[in-house]
Amino acid sequence: MRGVVGIDCGMSNGSEPGTGSDSGSGGGLAPQSTLIPADFPYRDLFHSLVEELPDAIFIKDLQGRYLFINEAGARYLGKPVEEILGRKDADLMSREEAQNTLEFDRQTLLAGRSLHAEMHEVMAGISREWLSTKGVIRREDGQVVGLFGIARDLSHDRRNEEARRRSEALFRAAASSSFDAFFLLRAEPEQLRLLRLNAHAERLLGGAAADLEGQLLSDVPHVAFIAPRALCDEVWRTGVPHDDEVEQALPGRGRRWFRRQLSAVGDCMAVTVRDITEQRENQMRLRLNERMASIGMLAAGVAHEINNPLAFVSSNLSFIGGELRRMDLSRDDARELMDALHEAREGAERMRLIVQSLRALSRGDPVNTHPLDLHEVLENSVHLAWSRLRSRGRLVRDYGELPQVLGNSVQLAQVFTNLLINAAQALPKQGGEIRLVTHMHGSSQVVVEVRDNGCGIAQENLERVFEPFFTTKPVGEGTGLGLSISHDIIRGLGGSMSVDSVVGQGSIFRVFLPVVDTGPLEKPPHVASLQQFA
C-alpha cells in the first residue's frame, strides 16, 4: 500500500467524527469503539466478521477520518483503536506515507470501484509489504458516503518464501556435494511423488531434476527399487529408519549393488542411495583370491601326489611296449595291443601336462603360449568330456579353415571341456544336440562357438554367468567358478568370450582367439561330421 492511507476530497456526508450512535471506549469491533452510524449498511454483519480476520480492515469518511478499524489494523498502525478513530492518516504516520495513502484513496474515490495494489511501506517503525484493496461505500440511494480498506501483510509470507528459497539452495548445494543419490518423496494414495533430487539422483534416474521433480516415482520404473511402497509404509508406521543393500539391473549399466537408507519426515520419505558396486566387486575379488589361494595349495598337493604314480604308469607303459615287441603275436593282435598302449601313453602324457599346469597354478607361473591347431585342442576336449557327453544326444562338428592360434593347449582344453560339459548338462532328455562351429572373425581372430539346444539362460542371469561363484545349478552340482576361470583364461590369452541365450531354445558361447600369421591350415577331414553320443 505504498502510498494510500487517507485523503480529504472535500466531500462530506454531514456526519462529524465521534457522533456515531454508539460511543465510548472498547475494542475495534464493539459498537462503542466505532464511529459508524447506526444506519450504516450491513453494520451488524460487518461487526460479526472483521475481528476474526488477520487482515487490517478499516472504514473512512469522505474527509479521510477513520470511522472504524479492527484490532489487526490498529496493531499495524502501532496505536490503540481509541487513538485512531476520528483521526486522519496525517495524524498517525509520516508525511510521506500519509501522502501516498491519500493518493490511493483519491484514485479509489475517482474510480468509484475497488482497486488493488501491492506496496511496501514502513508502519509503526516496521517495514512491511502489503496487498491492499480499497473500495467505495454507498448508501441505498447510490451516494458515496466513504471508503473501506483491506490490507493483508505479505511480509511473513515473503520472508517464508525467501527462507524456502535459501533452504532449497542450501539443500541443493549440500546434496550435490554428497556421494549419495538423494530423493525426497511425498506420500499420495497408492503412489509416491518425487519432490526433490540431487545430481547423483539425476544420473540414476536418467533425467534432469527440473523435468522429474513433481513426477510420480512409478513414471520411472527402473528406479522403483529405491522406495517400494510397502517398505515406505513400514517406515512410516514404525518410525524406524531402514537401511539395507539391494541388487538391481539397470538399463545400459548392467547389474549394480546399492546401499539404501529410508527415513520418514512427516508424510515425506527421505531416501539416500549409494552405488557400492565397486566395493562389492572388490570384496568378491578378495574372496576369489582367498579361495584361489586355497585352490592353489590344493593343486600343489594334488600335483605332487599324482606325479609319483604317474611316473610309475609311464615307466611301466614303456616296459610293456618293449615286451610286446618281443612277443610272438599275430599281426592283428599286435596292432590292437599297440593301439591301446599308444592311447594309454597319450592319456599319461595328458595327465603330465595337467600336473604341470596345476604346479604352474600353485606357483603363479606365467602361462606359456605357442602356436597350435585349434581343432586338435577341440578334439582333445571332446575326448576329455566324453564320459559326460555320452547318452545325451549328438555332437555336430562344423569346422572351417583356420590358421594356427596363439594359446596354451592345456588351458584351452580346460575351457572347451568346461563349455562342452555345461552344454551337455543343459540338453533336453530327447533330441539334444551340441554343435561345435569354428570360423574366422575378421583377419586377426578365430571364433569357436559351442551351441546347444538346451534350456537356455534367463535374461536376469545372462549378465552374471562370468561372475565368480555365480551358478544356477543346485547346491553340490556347481561351484560357480568354471565359466569365471574360463573367462579369465581366454582374456589372459588375448581373447574374449561372449554368450547369447534364449530360455527354452538354447545357448551359444563364443570364444575369440588371436591367430598366428603362418598361413591357413588345410581343411580338416572332420568338417560337418556327425557323431552320436554313445
UniProtKB/TrEMBL annotation:
> Annotated Gene Ontology MF terms?
phosphorelay sensor kinase activity
Query: Which residue intervals define the domain PAS in the entry?
Result: 42-112
Which keywords accompany this UniProt record? Kinase, Phosphoprotein, Transferase
Q: Does the keyword Membrane apply?
A: no
What domain of life does the UniProt record list for this protein's source? Bacteria
Looking up SUPFAM superfamilies in the UniProt record yields: ATPase domain of HSP90 chaperone/DNA topoisomerase II/histidine kinase (SSF55874), Homodimeric domain of signal transducing histidine kinase (SSF47384), PYP-like sensor domain (PAS domain) (SSF55785)
Per its record, how is this protein called by name? histidine kinase
What is the native source organism of this protein? Cystobacter fuscus (strain ATCC 25194 / DSM 2262 / NBRC 100088 / M29)
